[in-house]
């Protein structure tokens, strides 16, 4: 959506202070631990853009809390799997040989939205070191979330998502749907019903670029909408609020994952 369209669809500018109050009314407070998936344009016109959104969240949870956002870099992956868009077969070996190695400071996120991409670059934000599915975190215990992530099955056990589960964190969706809710990948892992696929990425191995293989779950994100709709039908499972033009949702990550495991096993 162009900024012109965003302005035309907005009744009034959203401010940092307005957003902070909205998050408080949804249930966030000092010390809250959240993983955020977001779309800046969905909110309408925000005075300060991504900066104001991030500041508003920090204002509420403070450093005593925890903010996590995905920083996935899907371009650093096996090119034969690419679909959006696919690339010619003759390009594949060139990409494998020349894709830059993952670097926590340099490697941008892809498809995560403007808010998550700015968050990745901010002082005090730590990042896990997985070449395709890294996460960023801010708060006193941020490094507890980002200091480990297995190369294979990076959204399963011992991942940032699993750490958030252990911390009894919450999920905040800002203008995005269930397919953006990465915590459901942890539910997929724990359901035990999915196979594996071979994946590969460029990494930095003590200063040497290497193209390395690993395995990940053969995920089916098309089911996430069905899981999410079934979950939000449970009384009290999801707190929903209109913030500006965006439909926002807040929920327990642990409760969502546990529900997702059982739903996937039974469908």
Poorly predicted regions: none
Number of strands: 9
Helix tally equals: 10
| CA-based shape | globular
What is the terminal separation in angstroms? 36 Å
Major sheet attributes: 7 strands, mixed
**Radius of gyration based on Cα positions:** 19 Å
Number of structurally distinct domains: 1
Order of strands side by side in the largest beta sheet? 3-4-2-1-5-9-8
**Mean pLDDT, all residues:** 97
Q: What proportion strand?
A: 15-25%
> What is the helix/strand order?
HHEHEHHEEHHEHEEHEEH
What's the gist of this structure?
The chain is of the alpha+beta class and 267 residues long. The chain contains ten helices and nine strands. The two termini are 36 Å apart.
């Amino acid at each position: 959506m162009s900024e012109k369209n965003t302005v035309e669809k907005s009744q009034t500018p959203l401010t940092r202070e307005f957003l902070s109050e909205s998050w408080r009314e949804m249930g966030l407070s000092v010390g809250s631990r959240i993983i955020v998936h977001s779309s800046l344009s969905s909110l309408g016109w925000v005075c300060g853009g991504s900066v104001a959104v991030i500041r508003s969240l920090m204002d509420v949870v403070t450093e005593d809390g925890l903010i996590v956002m995905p920083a996935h870099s899907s371009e650093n992956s096996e090119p034969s799997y690419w679909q959006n868009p696919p690339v010619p077969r003759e390009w594949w070996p060139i990409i494998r040989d020349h894709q830059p190695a993952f670097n926590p400071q340099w490697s941008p996120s892809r498809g995560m939205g403007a808010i998550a991409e700015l968050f990745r670059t901010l002082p005090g934000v730590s990042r896990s070191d997985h070449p395709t599915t890294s996460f960023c975190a801010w708060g006193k215990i941020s490094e507890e979330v980002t200091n480990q992530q297995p190369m294979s099955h990076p959204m399963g056990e011992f991942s940032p998502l699993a750490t958030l589960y252990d911390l009894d964190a919450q999920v905040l969706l800002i203008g995005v749907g269930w397919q953006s809710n990465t915590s459901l990948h942890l539910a997929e892992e724990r359901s035990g019903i999915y196979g594996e696929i071979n994946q590969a990425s460029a990494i930095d191995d003590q200063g040497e670029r290497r193209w390395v293989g690993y395995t990940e779950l053969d995920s089916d994100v098309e089911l996430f909408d069905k899981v999410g709709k079934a979950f939000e039908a449970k009384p009290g499972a999801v707190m929903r609020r209109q913030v500006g033009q965006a439909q926002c949702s807040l929920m327990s990550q642990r409760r969502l994952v546990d529900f997702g495991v059982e739903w996937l096993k039974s469908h």
